[in-house]
């Protein structure tokens, strides 16, 4: 199992898919699994249940995925900021890769996406700053993505994780 964490726009889905293809394992994205299981889009879940409700749901889904068969698993950008999910990662004994992106690159990639409700927060720069330490604290490996292609980031992950 390889878990990818990092801010929105870090490339978790693109890079994770490349790594999974190389390893011949499934690629899973916690947001997609949440949407499939609930039959609702992420922004609708935020509207109905608020961020706390979304985080609890995300926690349950991530717990189930971590206990499942080997995969490359991309987590939503806020998953590691939820203490219970962070504890799961700490005890999972798996490679956790922090895909690091600068704030302006992240906004260039995903800014204005209405499917990502956190981007509408006026304090999004503070959220970004606070999360950097959180991602580092759960990561067993940090891979930079600014100015690099998804293939380069994927190659780093393949070279530097245990698999
Ligand atoms: C979020 C990131 C999103 C998604 C939700 C909340 C966040 O995932 O889980 O919109 O809090 O940063 P991506 O990082 O895959 O965009």
Task: Describe the 3D structure.
With 163 residues, the chain is α/β, with parallel strands linked by helices. The chain contains 7 helices and 5 strands. It has helices spanning 12-23, 30-38, 42-66, 83-92, 103-110, 124-138, 150-160, and strands spanning 2-5, 26-29, 71-74, 95-100, 141-144. A 5-stranded parallel β-sheet has the order 2-3-1-4-5, sandwiched between helices. Helix 1 crosses helix 7. The longest helix is centred in the N-terminal third of the chain and has 25 residues, at 42-66. Bound molecules: shikimate-3-phosphate. Shikimate-3-phosphate binds at residues 8, 12, 31, 42, 76-78, 116-118.
Give a short overview:
This protein is of the alpha/beta class and 163 residues long. The chain is 55% helix and 13% strand. Helix 2 packs across helix 3 and helix 3 (42-66) runs parallel beside helix 4 (83-92).
For the structure shown, list the relevant keywords.
alpha/beta, 7 helices, 13% strand, 163 residues
